[in-house]
Design goal:
The protein has 99 residues and is mainly alpha-helical. It has one domain. It has a two-stranded antiparallel ribbon with strand order 1-2. The protein starts with a strand and ends with a helix.
Length: 99
């Protein structure tokens, strides 16, 4: 179990953090929710490619270990989970599109 040093929207456990936790954090920080969610989505979108690029770079420098491959796969899997978690409910998406 991965437990963060600081809460995100009242939640310490990484696997339990969902969209509403990021929304709660944005409200607590008085930060624009849409901007925060967009930034987190962008990080989740970029993570698999960034991890693969770093893996390729360090393997090119002669550092190769099964743990590196495992970490990259886990990051990619987590990024996909984050992308799924950060999908807006259809009612919220409609409100944003209308607003």
């Amino acid at each position: 179990m991965v437990k963060l040093a600081m809460k995100v929207g009242g939640e310490y456990r990484l696997r339990n953090i969902e969209l509403q936790h990021w929304q709660k954090l944005a409200a607590a920080l008085r930060f624009d929710e849409a901007i925060l969610i967009d930034r987190i989505r962008a990080m989740a979108d970029a993570m698999p490619d960034q991890a693969a690029a770093i893996q390729k770079q360090i393997e090119g420098e002669g550092l190769s270990h099964v743990a590196i491959t495992r970490v990259c796969k886990r990051l990619a899997t987590r990024a996909v989970a984050c992308q799924r978690i950060l999908q807006l409910p259809s009612s919220s998406a409609k409100l944003l599109a209308e607003g």
